[in-house]
Amino acid sequence: MHVDVAGSGPPLVLLHGWAMHGGIFAPLVQALRARRTLHVVDLPGHGRSRGSGLPLALDACADAVLDAVPDAPWCGWSLGGLVALHAASKQPARIHALAMVCATPKFVVAGDWPQGMPAEVFHGFADGLQADWRASVDRFIALEAFGSDHMREELRMLRDAVLAHGEPSPRVLAEGLRLLEGSDLRAALPALRMPSLWIGGRRDRLVNPLAMQAAAALAPDARFLQVEHAGHAPFLTHADAVADALLDFLASCDPRPNPATHAEAGSAQP
Questions:
Q1: Per-residue model confidence as pLDDT tens digits over 218-266
Q2: Which end of the chain is more exposed for a tag (fewer CB within 10 A), N or C?
Q3: H or E stretch including 253?
Q4: Residue ranges of the alpha helices (H) in 14-102?
Q5: Which of 16, 39, 96, 232 is labelled catalytic?
Q6: 183-186-187-189 Cα dihedral, nearest 10 degrees
């Protein structure tokens, strides 16, 4: 699995969304690199992990990323948020803070989850993949950008990113849609053992910010932030706002040394 490392300071892991790769985080990496060491992952079948034989499944992805990065907070965007949340529930000692960007524990609507997306949306994309995967991905990208104050800029950046390291595998694209459609991690939220930050775009047409608020309400130590003029990828068009929110959150979560331990260590020195 390919992981780019950039910046300096305490580590932070970044996980991208469906059909993308870690390079999509370039504006956010630029905004964070002076304060954080970014471990930017290409999930299996994406970007420079295109040759990975791993399935795009929660257990496989979470374990592979855990093997490739140090203990650190994780930040997951969209599909990457599902992987991050699953890993945090499996290995809480390795992930001491969790940030979810335009991601929820359950993407699809249900009777007790009215804020989710209609399942027909995913069925439509799945059918489109078989007929013309490029057109299907482009429709998904258009939804990601729709509603943003900077829609044209965001659309261009997303379209440029998707093919930056070669064409994505249609098999992996289909696996990703099944993962988005079938996952329900809500049961993990009340047991989360780390603080979490949920960042939504008010104009997001793929992940309803109300779903993110509902998810945050299920976790014991969670906060929700809405980026008012953003769509599904606020780190592209509002990178500084997202970076500031992440840095403030992470500063409040960073393990602090025990003053008594430092005092004892100091008194023991000659």
A1: 999 999 999 998 889 899 889 999 999 999 999 999 765 444 433 333 3
A2: C
A3: helix 239-253
A4: 26-32, 58-68, 79-90
A5: 232
A6: 130
What's the average model confidence in pLDDT over 34-44? 97
| pLDDT category of residue 52 using cuts at 50, 70 and 90 | confident
Annotate 4-21 with DSSP letters as a single string. Answer: EEEESSSEEEEE--TT--
Question: Is 78 annotated in the active site?
Answer: yes
Active-site residue (options: 52, 148, 204, 238)? 204
> DSSP string covering 172-221, please?
HHHHHHHHHHH---GGGGGG--S-EEEEEETT-SSS-HHHHHHHHHHSSS
Which tokens hold the place of 104?
Answer: 């929820």
pLDDT digits (tens, 9 = 90+) for 179-201: 999 999 999 999 999 999 999 99
Contacts of 74 (CB under 8 A, 6+ apart): 12, 13, 15, 84, 87, 88, 95, 97, 98, 99
| Torsion sign (Cα): 8, 17, 77, 160 | positive
Give residue 137's pLDDT.
Answer: 76
Is the confidence at residue 211, as pLDDT, over 50?
Answer: yes
C-alpha torsion 230→236→237→243, nearest 10: 90
Q: Is the dihedral of CA 171, 172, 175, 180 positive or negative?
A: negative
Provide the 10 A C-beta neighbour count for residue 113: 17
